[in-house]
Structure formats: structure tokens, C-alpha cells
Amino acid sequence: MKIFAVYGSSKSGKTTTVVEILKELRVRGYSVSTIKNVHVEHLVFDVVGKDTWRHWKAGAEVVGLRAPDESILMIKRPVMLDELIRHFSSDYLVLEGFRGASLPKILCATDEERVEDELQSNVFCISGLVSAHLSTYKGVPVINALLNASALVDLVERKSLKL
């Protein structure tokens, strides 16, 4: 499995970039999974009073839900990223967020000032809203995912970390 992260500030184009990468990876025949880092405490995935919610209340730490068209595995405790990654086995695992992860990354930014503030040494490409104004930044390619997902995925194929 190959892995990389897409990070940046809110409304910088992270999700759009991830979606375009996912679509292009699928066109190329790869299986793809994602993990989204959410900064919301007490996030609710279950409906009060329903069966799986009752399983939580009874003390289950992990609850699985299997339906005819999808399955969900919910873990009722914080999980470190490396532990969570072990549950995936696709060709590519795309992380959205995870600014602090020691992985190859794509930085999404709104403008050049944000690029300067957020650029890390493990960034192999810059995308997001700033890509409408830049083509390179300090030797790092800037690629608009909406206009050139193919070139972006060419980099992803070469720069992602193989686990």
C-alpha cells in the first residue's frame, strides 16, 4: 500500500484535491481508501436509541455495522494514526489533514503567504486555491487538481510512501 497526506488550512481546497486524486487513481485501476482527520469533539455517527447506539451504551469498544450496501467499523476510543492505518489494505491510502504526520504530503493553500507559513520539508506538491496563481514555489510544483489531476497523480505515484 502507498500512502500520502493532503493538508492545509480550512477552505484551501483540500477535499477538492483529494476527490480529484481519488477519481484519477480509480481511472488508473487502483483501489483507494481515505482517512479524514476531523477536529470535532463528541462527533456522533450513531442514532440515539438504535441498536448500535445501545451496543455502545452497553460497553462495546468496537461496533461493526453490516448492511447490504455498506459496512462501518466504529471504535469508541481515540486511535493513533498508525493503528488506524493497519485496518486498510488498498493500493493507496489518502489522508486528509494530518498536518503533523511524517509522510509525503501535498499542501493546499489559499495564497502564497499561506504556502510560506505552512510549507514543510516533506511536501512534494502544492495544490488548492493557490494553484490558480502559481506554477512552482521554491522548486515545489504547484498543480491545480481540477485542471490537471493526471499530472498530480503522476507525482502521487512517484512520491507516495510504500508501506
Describe this structure in words.
With 163 residues, the protein is α/β, with parallel strands linked by helices. The protein has a single domain, classed as P-loop containing nucleotide triphosphate hydrolases (Rossmann fold). It has 5 helices and 10 strands, in the order E-H-E-H-E-E-H-E-E-H-E-E-E-H-E. Strands 1, 2, 5, 6, 7 and 10 form a 6-stranded mixed beta sheet that branches. Strands 3-4 form a two-stranded antiparallel ribbon. A two-stranded antiparallel ribbon has the order 8-9. Helix 4 links the parallel strand 6 and strand 7.
Range of helix content: 25-40%
Measure the end-to-end span: 5 Å
Q: Strand pairing plus helix content: what structural class? A: alpha/beta
Backbone CA Rg = 18 Å
Q: What's the CATH topology label?
A: Rossmann fold
- What is the CATH H-level superfamily? P-loop containing nucleotide triphosphate hydrolases
Instruction: Report strand %.
Output: 25-35%
Named at the architecture level, the CATH assignment is: 3-Layer(aba) Sandwich
Give average pLDDT, whole number.
92
CATH class: Alpha Beta
In short:
The chain has 163 residues and is an alpha/beta fold.
Could you outline the blueprint of secondary structure elements for this entry?
Layout: E1 2-8, H1 14-27, E2 32-36, H2 51-58, E3 62-66, E4 71-75, H3 81-85, E5 92-96, E6 105-108, H4 112-118, E7 123-127, E8 136-137, E9 140-141, H5 149-159, E10 161-162
Parallel strand pairs: 1-5, 1-6, 2-5, 6-7
Antiparallel strand pairs: 1-10, 3-4, 8-9
Helix pairs in contact: 1-5
